[in-house]
Amino acid sequence: MTAPDTGLIGEAPAPGPVTTGDARQRILDVALVQMSEHGSAAVSMRQVAAGAGVNVATIYHHFESKAAMLRAVIDERRYGQRLTTDRPPVSAAASPSERLVDLVGWLWHQTLAEGPVFRLIVGEAIRGEEAATASVHAVVDGLTAALETWLAELLPEHSDSASDLASVVRDAVFAMIVEHLTLGGVDVEGARRRAGALARLTLA
Fold first, then answer.
1. Are 74 and 114 in contact (CB under 8 A)?
2. Which helix (H) or strand (E) segment is 78 a member of?
């Protein structure tokens, strides 16, 4: 997963003149920041318009409703596509444990870059927002399938257990997401240390 254009976690796009060509993307960028911080129910179209430097009519030109805008914020991250095209830069010469650690470290680095999106979809899914709940299911299913493929390729010594290992790694990553969003402090090195412990338990 590549880093989004919104910059650091929670950082709003800088204000400035908006042309027709970039208005839609700026609306989505601002909506992502505002909704991830406050929840979609607490964010009005007027607030998004003010943050994006456009009028409300411009938002309705691109999105028929706030729900449609929320769906676009999530769907246009294209997680399914990116999970099938991205490949973790893991050396085949490393030991199996090192390969697993490198995979999890790379995956967590990509996850941290998507902080506002994960904050948004987890929060909205908990509140029962249909678009976010569907997105969570899609991300879980896509990540599980991608991990199974990656692990079968990166750990041929354990290809017969790639499916089970993919589920374990997926669960560990989502546990770190919840911890990071609620308590903070899970950096890439911390993720790598946890992956090392996981490797010792699963690749023995």
1. no
2. none
